[in-house]
Design goal:
alpha/beta, 8 helices, 2 domains, Rossmann fold, four-stranded parallel sheet, 168 residues, elongated
Length: 168
């Protein structure tokens, strides 16, 4: 009888339950800890995602497309403070609704907002990559091409707070 147990050895039933109970207890304790710390964890995550550099005068302000409810306002504020002589924006690809004439291109909306906020038309530089930009990556390529030709020393990039980590 003893020899048979050694061949097909497995944990005794009580020990299996003890191990399962320990694992379950550990998982429940971890879940409760995460739940109790959720606000701190969210704050730490937000602090990691947001990059907020001290701004100094630059050669240009580069306005990333999207979030035209906030980004153009911030770019115009920086421009009015005299942090850069002009604002650069890459033209976004026309969406199907733009092609149908239902809405405006997001770049046009941003430029129109800049004008209404006092940014002179001649100080806005619109980059026009073939087909327009469709992502932050495309906008980075357009900015690189602009930097190669215009040779700015410093550029302020305007984006949304939670996108600042990937844009930096």
């Amino acid at each position: 009888m003893l020899i048979e147990r050694e061949k097909g050895y497995s944990l005794p039933r009580k020990r299996k339950y003890a191990v399962a109970a320990l694992i379950a207890f550990t998982l429940v304790a971890a879940a409760i800890s995460i739940y109790e710390l959720r606000f701190r964890l969210l704050i730490l995550t937000a602090q990691y995602l947001v990059v907020d550099d001290r701004l100094e005068p630059a050669d240009a302000i580069y306005l990333l497309n999207g979030d035209f409810y906030r980004r153009p306002y911030h770019a115009a504020e920086l421009y009015r403070k005299g942090l850069a002589p002009h604002i650069v924006i890459a033209r976004a690809e026309d969406s199907p609704s733009v092609a149908l004439g239902i809405t405006q291109n997001v770049t046009d909306l941003s430029i129109e907002t800049l004008k209404k906020l006092g940014v002179a038309d001649q100080t806005t530089v619109q980059l026009r990559p073939p087909g327009g930009v469709t992502s932050t990556y495309d906008e980075a390529i357009a900015l690189r091409d602009y930097a190669v030709s215009a040779r700015p020393h410093t550029i302020i990039i305007v984006t949304s707070e939670f996108h600042s980590r990937r844009s930096s």
